[in-house]
Amino acid sequence: MITSRLPGFYKLSLDERRRVAADALGVSIDELEVALEGGGLSVASADKTIENVIGTYALPLALALNVKVNGRDYLVPMAVEEPSVVAAASAAARSVRDGGGFFAVADAPVMIAQIELDQVPEVHEAVRAVMTHERRLRELADAAVPGLVARGGGARHLEMRLLDGSATNAWMVVHVHLDCRDAMGANLANTVAEALAPELERLTGGRVGLRILSNLCDTRRVRAVCRVPPASLVMGERTGEEVRDGIVRASRFAERDPYRAATHNKGIMNGIDPVVIATGNDWRAVEAGAHAWAARTGHYSPLATWSVVGAETRDLSGVLAPPAQHGWLQGKIELPIALGIVGGTLRVHGGAKAALALTGVTSAQELAMLACSVGLASNLAALRALATVGIQEGHMALHARSVASAAGAQESEVERVAAIIHGRGWVTLDAATQALRELRAETDAAE
Question: Which residue numbers are catalytic?
């Protein structure tokens, strides 16, 4: 049985971490090493992936620990360069475990294909014509993606939206709701939009414009909930209740101020994006959809909010979660996330294939729920730090290792140099260079 509780994992050497992860997942260490060495993508493969290739560009690939979603443990691959992101998400997920873990639900994997129409001569007639022939239009859409239909997907519904104009000479758009199954769905949606355009032009009398998917896939939303007992929030001299209330106040700040909400949401995407990148998915599409969803009311709002469990916190947005005790901290998140576990980058990128295998997910919806939960954990970690010691305390402690390495510290020296400069409160390259010089002088003198 897989467990994401691996105490002391960060203290192990790189080789030991791989061995422990392989054992926890029940995979071959040799297979894991081959897949991950060199970033999982050869220059030759990269040259066939995009144009004008001159090399590859690597990011650290790490595992977030302690993550439990809907009663199942996950080791979560994260590709990210920012220090403290993985450690913070893992620590927050550890606190969430004390409240039962994350509970999540995902909509069906439905994407929206858009066909733009302008100069539509008569709106009501155009709507009537499209709705009358909806079944045939869906059949045309399905004929354009037979492989998807064979896997149980296909066109599910058509809708029309008026963008501008009166009853005559209008500007409209047709949305085709396309069930993409385990694919992210961009190419599928684009194919369907192209296929339906000529017939929609004929039926409406309008002029076809753009034919492309929408990244505001609000038909493909994910929701997650977590609860944390106050006893699991204690930090130093601060009681769990004090930390809880500080997190709730920080959430209220984001709900009222779009400037704060932008940074609040960036902290959420600190958790989501690395999972999306690691598994070979389109993080730009996920970012676009998330921020569009946050601004859907005309006021930019936080994707996740936090409250104290009580009479006012019953709405869990359809997530089936067990009852929580009064006074616990509760977090909720909702956003559109379009991910795939087949096709795309996964065809050519060995690292992405290996990372996806590490998750153990069996559907695109399960991967989306996992990414969403890590985003909620990342948000909790950021708010807990902001409400107590400040965001820089933990971040700079981990950043110090990168600075020490940049100063030329060898593997055996990095942790000692990092501790010196962090202890002095001066985490800069000059400080690290000076600390390394002092450390080596002490070593030489001792010898």
Answer: 82, 266, 282, 395
